[in-house]
Amino acid sequence: MIWTLEVKLVCGIYAQGPWEATIEIDSAATLEDLHRAIRSAVRFGDDHLYLFYVARSHTSRARTVFGDEDGSLETTLVELFPLPWNRKLFYWFDFSDDWKFSIDRTRTAPRGPHRGGRYPKLVATRGDTPVQYPL
Length: 135
Fold this sequence. Notes:
Elements: E1 2-11, E2 19-26, H1 31-42, E3 50-55, E4 64-66, H2 77-80, E5 88-93, E6 99-105, E7 121-127
Antiparallel strand pairs: 1-2, 1-6, 2-7, 3-4, 3-5, 5-6
């Protein structure tokens, strides 16, 4: 099934303002696939460590981490959602520049893929796309 996700910039050392994107993605996609989709949407290079975590807020210390060291980036979205009550999914890219994004599954009903459609698909963006390394 194809799900619609809303990805919102929470913070980053060079963040200039709000930014968000709507991404359609297969529910069987992994967190690794979601990383590639978000990184592509913001046009960041793939030269830094990253992880996903589930927490109440992006600053919460109590969190469930999904990272490369334990293979948990192979967790699929359908395995992860629905999230526990009062928890959100966050994507943290480049631990020194501290780019953090929140990820929400929308209320849009899941659907089958469009014939010939390729997923994940960036559907829309709003705001100024963050610049990874401003001049």
